């Protein structure tokens, strides 16, 4: 049974719909790649699945709850407790150290500084970037910064990780390493991953692929 399931989503920002009946489901521990050309609706689909954006119609069910019928405050709380996010770039707070960035979601959840930073340090170790703990994000390489971002997305133990072009700003070697570390950590913690990418090499880390085109989605059988 799906952990998170979107059905028949429609969303328009203008005359042409961004989503025109798209859907997607993901099970616990499963990595699903969302592929498709630029402008096809991938990010809009991800934002609807994550409860960041309300679709015009259609349903998004997470466990036994329907996201669109939740009050905003409850949906925000659910995002904080159950979801993790990795974006292409610009997601770390520049004024904080990398360690403080990873500890931040725990601090926002009311965990005291020492405990939060100790758990954050463990995640920096798992992502093999303890060396940047005391640096600010601007002082790291792109690959290091994305590993810190992955640590921050996973530190709260989310059930679903949303990754929108997480390797888009990286060279292929660093991109592959980030994907290895992200998917290994997700599998260990049984987190589902919804991975938006236009790179086949990145999608190869998924269990399943869904292609979005003109706001419609379809499953593809990968040749592997
Ligand atoms: P993708 O992620 O596949 O590149 P998007 O979901 O970002 O596609 O965009 C799908 C379509 O919706 C595009 O035509 C895009 O311009 C439009 N769109 C997305 N977000 C917005 C927004 N906030 N306001 C207006 N148009 C948007
Ligand atoms: P694209 O896939 O087109 O590059 P981006 O990843 O840059 O899209 O994000 C585009 C949209 O996602 C923007 O409308 C932005 O408001 C929203 N967004 C990005 N990060 C967050 C976040 N952490 N929380 C909520 N919305 C976000």
From TrEMBL:
It comes from the Bacteria. GO terms for molecular function: ATP binding; ATP hydrolysis activity; transmembrane transporter activity. SUPFAM superfamilies: P-loop containing nucleoside triphosphate hydrolases. The lineage of its organism: Bacteria, Bacillati, Actinomycetota, Actinomycetes, Pseudonocardiales. Gene3D superfamilies: P-loop containing nucleotide triphosphate hydrolases (3.40.50.300). Keywords: ATP-binding, Nucleotide-binding, Transport. Signal peptide: none annotated. GO terms for cellular component: plasma membrane. PROSITE patterns: ABC_TRANSPORTER_2. Residues 4-222 form the ABC transporter domain. This is ABC transporter ATP-binding protein. InterPro entries: AAA+_ATPase (IPR003593), ABC_transporter-like_ATP-bd (IPR003439), ABC_transpr_LolD-like (IPR015854), MacB-like_ATP-bd (IPR017911), P-loop_NTPase (IPR027417).
């Amino acid at each position: 049974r799906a952990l998170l399931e979107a059905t028949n989503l429609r969303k328009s920002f203008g005359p042409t719909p961004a989503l025109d009946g798209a859907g997607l489901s993901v099970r616990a521990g499963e990595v699903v790649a969302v592929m498709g050309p630029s402008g096809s609706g991938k990010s809009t689909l991800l934002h609807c699945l994550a409860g960041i954006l309300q679709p015009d119609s259609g349903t998004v069910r997470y466990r036994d709850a329907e996201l669109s019928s939740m009050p905003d405050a409850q949906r925000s709380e659910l995002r904080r407790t159950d979801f993790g996010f990795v974006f292409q770039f610009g997601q770390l707070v520049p004024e904080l150290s990398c360690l403080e960035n990873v500890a931040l979601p725990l601090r926002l959840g009311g965990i005291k500084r020492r405990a939060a930073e100790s758990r954050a340090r463990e995640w920096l170790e798992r992502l093999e970037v303890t060396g940047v703990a005391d640096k600010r994000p601007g002082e790291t390489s792109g690959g290091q910064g994305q590993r810190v971002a992955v640590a921050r997305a996973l530190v709260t133990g989310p059930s679903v990780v949303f990754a929108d072009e997480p390797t888009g700003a990286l060279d292929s070697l660093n991109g592959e390493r980030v994907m290895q570390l992200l998917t290994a950590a997700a599998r260990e913690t049984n987190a589902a991953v919804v991975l938006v990418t236009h790179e086949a090499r990145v999608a190869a880390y998924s269990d399943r692929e869904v292609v979005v085109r003109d706001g419609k989605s379809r499953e593809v059988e990968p040749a592997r």
